[in-house]
Amino acid sequence: xxxxxxxxxxxxxxxxxxxxxxxxxxxxxxxxxxxxxxxxxxxxxxxxxxxxxxxxxxxxxxxxxxxxxxxxxxxxxxxxxxxxxxxxxxxxxxxxxxxxxxxxxxxxxxxxxxxxxxxxxxxxxxxxxxxxxxxxxxxxxxxxxxxxxxxxxxxxxxxxxxxxxxxxxxxxxxxxxxxxxxxxxxxxxxxxxxxxxxxxxxxxxxxxxxxxxxxxxxxx
Length: 220
Prior knowledge:
Elements: H1 14-36, H2 39-56, H3 59-66, E1 71-81, E2 89-102, E3 108-110, H4 120-123, H5 127-132, H6 135-150, H7 158-189, H8 195-201, H9 203-219
């Protein structure tokens, strides 16, 4: 991919390089995100999830299920993270070791409203509706919520996932702005920017481009 990146002095060519710019912005932010996550936090999160899964799926139980082909080993899991509205954000986590789970396992959840206790407030139910529920309906609701609650990432790990969402929001905002900027530059100045000007305007993209340009300049 490196040899396809134009030199800093080259002017952006929209017909030929729009797709290239899109890919480079994505690559730049992928590297930026990886560099922004402290390695110790990544390892700690993976191990914390391993221990959580081992609590959900005790080894003795898994040995019984294994006899019926109802287990599998996981080395990575998907975590659905609450983004303030819903759990539509998915973060993949490498566990660092293998953990045996039931085949019914389909990932974990993180963040959002927590359910606890036996009050309408603790269960996220309006008191007026709670009053119309039978004791059995209330218990069924609480049992279902408790099952889902056990499949949440431990609260101590939530800041790690919140940090990833912060980076993702920054990426989505900058992706839209940086890929539209060459056209905005042309409208304002009459010409498209050079790749060097784009690198100066968008530091994350610029850091990615300079990792290619600087070795090439030294070799020249």
